[in-house]
Amino acid sequence: QRQKSQEKEEGKHGPLGDNEMARVSTDKKQVKKTGLVVVKNMKIVGLHCSSEDLHAGKIALIKHGSRLKNCDLYFSRKPCSACLKMIVNGSAFERQVEALPEEMVSWLEPSGLQQVFQAAGVNRISYWPADPEISLLSGASGSEDAKLDAKAVERLKSNSRAHVCVLLQPLVCFMVQFVEETSHKCDFIQKISKTLPDANVDFYSECRQERVKEYEMLFLVSNEELHKQILMTIGLENLCENPYFSNLRQNMKDLILLLATVASSVPNFKHYGFYSGNTEQINEIHNQSLPQEVARHCMVQARLLAYRTEDHKTGVGAVIWAEGKSRNCDGTGAMYFIGCGYNAFPAGSEYADFPNMDDKQKDREIRKFRYIIHAEQNALTFRCQEIKPEEKSMIFVTKCPCDECVPLIKGAGIKQIYAGDVDVGKKKADISYMRFGELEGVSKFTWQLNPSGTCVLEQNEPESRESKYLQGLY
Ligand SMILES: Nc1ccn([C@H]2C[C@H](O)[C@@H](COP(=O)(O)OP(=O)(O)OP(=O)(O)O)O2)c(=O)n1
């Protein structure tokens, strides 16, 4: 969600009629994009956002069709009735059929019912309870449309199998503290501290503060009364009374703080970014790195995933994206999501099924290394799209790819690697990071000070290129 790109939106989103659109377009800045995560069997199968022409829910339908069945959807705002009706399509019918006697169901099935069964019919829809389209509330007819839409949403909700809810819980104890410490210790921040020892020691806190402000603007309705009005309009009047309201706001603020903290571990600081040391390489168009802000955004996704690790010492996250030949209908522009993962023991294993000690343990048999599946390995294994050899695919890893993963990434046909390189060249007893440095045929962009200096930075990243992506991705 980016204010820059919102200016293009001109009220094309939201449950408003055409006349209302015209009114909203005079107040461009208030329309924000909607983000959506599609999850199937605990696996992320889609990361989308609204585009100029389409809401996120509609994009999910175009992209996944009947594969949305039984998926869980996570929206950054409550979906409007136009999206919800398509998303729940199928589940109401399914419920009616479930209620029929068994013989009748089996009698119905061969007669084309199977097709109906495969309609969208998602499982659960959860959303962030702060509709950013504050403009819905200003002006009489805007309010009227918003209320009608909210009623339609409630009706669709109560007649479908899908569970529509606000999935917001208090964070577990010490979570913020833990995330703060691990973000501070992360490779990207460490590298800045090492290479710029005289950088303001507090640069990390400053970057974090900036992110907190930015995210509060994006995800929180600063005015409490307005927030209450929005909750009323979207059918959450039960959250408007205290202590529920203050608890809700506190939980929202905590989560925003958490997100901002993770994001500040890949900071927008001086001329740091993901760069290739190979200048010949960067001059070739197809090897060109993404605009820095887009690369940082994808790396933050990988950093978030690292918190799901099953390795209690070192969490690693990886995300794979690809760039198609042209823009698609998704708000992510030409880029589309391929897969993601984090380091963990083989899927389905229970706690303590496998050894979990590190290199310092003398007994090699009880070390974790032969059992842990690396973040990149999980991202490749559980990907939801094929990696097309003719397209630019890229992996974002929070740590340097190890010797086990480097040939896997190359073999899978991934064209670009964005990673931290703090461990490059290190050889430990059970894991080593020697091959990444020598890797050829895959472009490597590691976290460093722009090697070409500031002037070249500006030439390499003309406004048009950066904004082309930003309009798409955020
Ligand atoms: N690109 C990478 C690199 C590592 N890992 C995972 C595998 C292990 O779970 C863990 C290993 O990390 P380290 O090499 O940092 O080893 P230690 O956890 O022992 O930490 P230390 O650096 O203190 O030795 O990270 C991963 O998934 N992807």
Automatic annotation (TrEMBL):
<keyword id="KW-0677">Repeat</keyword>
<dbReference type="GO" id="GO:0004126">
    <property type="term" value="F:cytidine deaminase activity"/>
</dbReference>
<comment type="similarity">
    <text>Belongs to the cytidine and deoxycytidylate deaminase family.</text>
</comment>
<dbReference type="InterPro" id="IPR016193">
    <property type="entry name" value="Cytidine_deaminase-like"/>
</dbReference>
<comment type="function">
    <text>Catalyzes the deamination of cytidine and deoxycytidine into uridine and deoxyuridine, respectively. May play an important role in testicular development and spermatogenesis.</text>
</comment>
<dbReference type="InterPro" id="IPR035105">
    <property type="entry name" value="Deoxycytidylate_deaminase_dom"/>
</dbReference>
<keyword id="KW-0862">Zinc</keyword>
<feature type="domain" description="CMP/dCMP-type deaminase">
    <location>
        <begin position="9"/>
        <end position="116"/>
    </location>
</feature>
<feature type="domain" description="CMP/dCMP-type deaminase">
    <location>
        <begin position="293"/>
        <end position="433"/>
    </location>
</feature>
<dbReference type="GO" id="GO:0005737">
    <property type="term" value="C:cytoplasm"/>
</dbReference>
<dbReference type="Pfam" id="PF00383">
    <property type="entry name" value="dCMP_cyt_deam_1"/>
</dbReference>
<dbReference type="InterPro" id="IPR015517">
    <property type="entry name" value="dCMP_deaminase-rel"/>
</dbReference>
<keyword id="KW-0732">Signal</keyword>
<dbReference type="GO" id="GO:0008270">
    <property type="term" value="F:zinc ion binding"/>
</dbReference>
<dbReference type="GO" id="GO:0004132">
    <property type="term" value="F:dCMP deaminase activity"/>
</dbReference>
<dbReference type="InterPro" id="IPR016192">
    <property type="entry name" value="APOBEC/CMP_deaminase_Zn-bd"/>
</dbReference>
<feature type="compositionally biased region" description="Basic and acidic residues">
    <location>
        <begin position="2"/>
        <end position="15"/>
    </location>
</feature>
<dbReference type="InterPro" id="IPR002125">
    <property type="entry name" value="CMP_dCMP_dom"/>
</dbReference>
<keyword id="KW-0479">Metal-binding</keyword>
<keyword id="KW-0378">Hydrolase</keyword>
<protein>
    <recommendedName>
        <fullName>Cytidine and dCMP deaminase domain-containing protein 1</fullName>
        <ecNumber>3.5.4.5</ecNumber>
    </recommendedName>
</protein>
<feature type="region of interest" description="Disordered">
    <location>
        <begin position="2"/>
        <end position="27"/>
    </location>
</feature>
